[in-house]
Amino acid sequence: MNTLVLATEEQEAEVSLKFYNRAYLHLQDPAELKAWLPQADLVIDLLLHERPERLAQYNQQGKGDKLTVFFNANHLNLTEFTSAYSPLNFNLAGLIGEPLVNKEVLEVVPLREDSHRSIDKAFVFLASLYQLVKV
Fold this sequence. Notes:
By secondary structure, the chain is of the alpha/beta class. Helix content is about 30%, strand content about 25%. Strand 5 and strand 6 (about 105-110) form a beta hairpin. The longest helix is centred in the C-terminal third of the chain and has 11 residues, at about 115-125. The mean pLDDT is about 95.
C-alpha cells in the first residue's frame, strides 16, 4: 500500500514510532503532494486541518474511492470541515484524542459510513488497532 505522510518533524517522529514496521514517504513540502498523490493508497495528513483546500486536491488527483486519508480532526466537525469540498470521492477519516497517534488504540471518526471497509484495510496494513468513535 503506497503511503504518504504529511506532518511536521515532531509528528513524523511519532508516526514512525507507531508504524515502525511500515514503509511510507514523509513529505516535508506539501508541494510534493502533486507528484506523489496519484500513486497513493493511504495518506496520513496531520496538517490538513490547517489547509482544508487540500481536500480539493485529494478529490482531483487521488485514486477516488481507492484513496483513504487520515487527518487530525481534534476539535473539528467533519461535516462542516468538508462542506465546501463535498461530495468527496475518497475515504476521509479523522484521528482524535491526545496523543493523536502514539497510543495503543487509535480513535477514528469516519466522515461516511461507507468508509469503514477502507479504514479497516488501512489499519490491517498499518498493523495497528483502532476504534471507531462517534462525536
